[in-house]
Amino acid sequence: MGLLKDSDRRTTSVQWPDEVDAHLDLLVRLAAGEGILISRAQMLSALVADANLDKNVVATIARRYLSNLNEGDLARTAPPEQHLPVVRHRGRQRARPA
């Protein structure tokens, strides 16, 4: 048996708000700041693999996202970015909104 990160893959297409996408980039940069080089896809996989499976916790998270989080909430809780490393992503670069 090998590592989960090296097992068979499934390609998915995810659409989400720009602010959530920026938050994923922030998580990757936070890991890089601790010396852990991880891709966006690997970070998503890590978050899902580590997710709490208690139905009440899952329901609370889903409810918070669907009805309590407002635009700008994620940005307000983010640490200062000037102390984080810049991470270059492999592959085609996504266009950033102006």
Features:
single chain, 98 residues, mainly alpha, 4 helices, 45% helix, 0% strand, globular, CopG family transcriptional regulator
Structural overview:
With 98 residues, this protein is mostly helical. Helices cover 45% and strands 0% of the residues. It is built from 4 helices and no strands. The chain has helices at 18-33, 40-49, 55-67, 73-77. The longest helix is centred in the first third of the chain and has 16 residues, at 18-33. 1% of the residues are buried.
Content of β-strand = under 5%
Radius of gyration: 15 Å
Helix proportion of residues, in percent? 40-55%
**SS elements, strand count:** 0
User: Mean pLDDT, as a whole number?
Assistant: 88
Poorly predicted sequence stretches spanning 5 or more consecutive residues: none
Write the layout of secondary structure elements.
Blueprint: H1 18-33, H2 40-49, H3 55-67, H4 73-77
Protein name: CopG family transcriptional regulator
Short structural description:
The protein has helices spanning 18-33, 40-49, 55-67, 73-77. The chain is mostly helical and 98 residues long.
